[in-house]
Amino acid sequence: MKIGKGLRVTAAALAGLVGLAACGGGDDAADSGPVTLRMTLWTANEAHLKLFNEIADEYKKTHSNIAEIKFDPLPFDNYTTTLTTQIAGGNAPDLAWIFENSAPDFVSSGALMPLDETLKKTEGYGYDDLSPATLKLWQDGGKLYAYPFSTSPFGVFVNNDMLKKAGQKTPAELIAAGQWNWTNALAAASATNASTGKAGLVIRDFDYKGWDNLSTYFTGWGAQAWSADGKSCGFTSPEMVDAMTTLHKAIFVDKALPGPGTTADFFAGEAAMTVTQISRASLLKDDGFAWDLVPLPAGPKGNYSVVGQAGIGVMKKSKNAQAAADFLAYFTNATNSEKLAQFFPPPRQSQLTAETLAKTNPKLKPEQLQKVVIDGITNGVVKPNHAGQAELSQQVRAALDPMWKPDADVKAVLEGVCTKIQPLLAK
């Protein structure tokens, strides 16, 4: 398979930035007078953007050098490709959200400005409050290149009304009985679909494209996309074959998940359960269905948690790089971090308590926050990430395409994945 044009742009953009970064920081080229800062992000959620703009407006009141702070939402599905296309085209933002799957490339490319000095010297910032475990993915050579803005474990949002209508036990009841596992979750999802005609379970943002979101499922089998050192393909392991065989049956035989080409929005009442993060809680309607949030079901290897991370970095070649870093220090200080925690679990150890998170998460109960967020961060593994992730991801996605057919040979498809990506992993 040929690498798509978007991926060639991505690779070229990041590779080119190594040379650009060596030329020095961007503030030397800064224009005099008030500046405009632009930050790209993946969310267009009104509640998220409202809070971001409120924080930005407060900052501008005491920083006359800042004329405007723009938050620029990019489509989730091709966020990284769009961002790197902007970089390659000379339209780089000043700040950018970065997904965990592309963190190795951004951190090692020289594209980002080190943040340690700015954050540490900011009065009252409390740099030492940042959990060391949340920083690792964003560090290189002892320097921090992006702030771990959101360290958010995946959980399962549940439509209790729909499950009860289908005559199924709720996850809370299964948890109380020690029976909350993938076998029972998929069985309840299948029965709900058969009874109501609506979707049983949706792995949000998978949609037969975002395969790395399936790590929220196959990690329960002890399966990995690749080895811990990143050099060996994991798709042909017995654990992965078992996990994917079970998933294939759940989709095409039991109808527990909506099939390819079918969409179902849990938050619109179209599915009984969805795997996603707490930032989506803002989509729940106060006058909607009775819902719950529970941890991921146990897999054959027992209980587990998967964490999605997003960092915010400052582009080193931004002509306003230092101004952008100063705003980032304000945006993520202790006060604002507590406000942002209603959507994005913070890396601050002092704020990672159920009581603290509950203050800004009125829709979620302290027990839900403890079981899903706090325990999830403590015990979770981060979604798959690797240098050259863009090319790897497209190769995996293309190689998995034959899987999403009723008569697929699951084991053969997974062998095909390794055939495609092993040469890339071995580089």
From TrEMBL:
Recorded superkingdom: Bacteria
Keyword set includes Signal: yes
Protein's UniProt keywords contain Signal: yes
Signal sequence extent: 1-21
Keyword terms of this UniProt record: Signal
Protein name stated in the entry: ABC transporter substrate-binding protein
